[in-house]
Amino acid sequence: MSKVEDFLTQEEEEQIIKAIRKAEQQTSGEIRIHLERTCEGHVYEHALEVFHLLKMDNTKLQNGVLIYVAIDRREFVIYGDKGINDLVANDFWDTTRDLILEEFKKGAFALGLIRGVTEAGKVLSKFFPWEFGDVNELDNSISKG
To answer: Could you report the per-residue pLDDT of 7-27, keeping only the tens digit for each?
Structure first.
């Protein structure tokens, strides 16, 4: 599987977007998914570049989260913005990572992303709960590179 378009079906993408919307009902945090066929260089560094390209560092509370997937390399990164990282322990994303990885190992990519998004929303809600008047600052669609 090498094409980004073949990684998820349209129905799976819609399920993931629905999970993002539902997760963001619990938190003012913003969650995005970005898929790329491959990544040249270090995956973490590239995920950081994508985070900035998607303007995820422009949220009011600096509480954006990117789940970046390099399909051919079978690698992913969960990158949280400064507002999150200033408040949480270094192992904050481990549970989310483990849930995604568990499903990815079985080839259940959509389920892995849904479980990751759901967990991210849950843990973000503890530090950045949704409040009345909260505005969705970022697009919920799955971006592709």
So the answer is: 999 999 999 999 999 999 999
Domain 4-129, CATH among 1.10.1660.10, 1.10.150.170, 3.40.50.300, 3.10.310.50? 3.10.310.50
Question: What is the spatial distance between Cα 112 and Cα 7, in angstroms, rounded to a whole number?
Answer: 12
DSSP 61-114: TS-EEEEEEETTTTEEEEEE-HHHHTTS-TTTTHHHHHHHHHHHHTT-HHHHHH
Residue 1 has pLDDT above 50, yes or no: no
| Structural tokens at position 108 | 């259940």
Task: Quote the CA–CA distance of 145 and 138 in Å, as a whole number.
Answer: 17
Tell me if the pTM is above 0.85. Answer: yes
Q: Which three-class secondary structure state does DSSP give residue 35? A: strand
pLDDT value at 2 more than 60? no
Q: Which one-letter amino acid corresponds to residue 5?
A: E
Distance, in Å, from the CA atom of 12 to the CA atom of 39, rounded to the nearest integer, reads 23
Q: Is the pLDDT of residue 3 over 90?
A: no
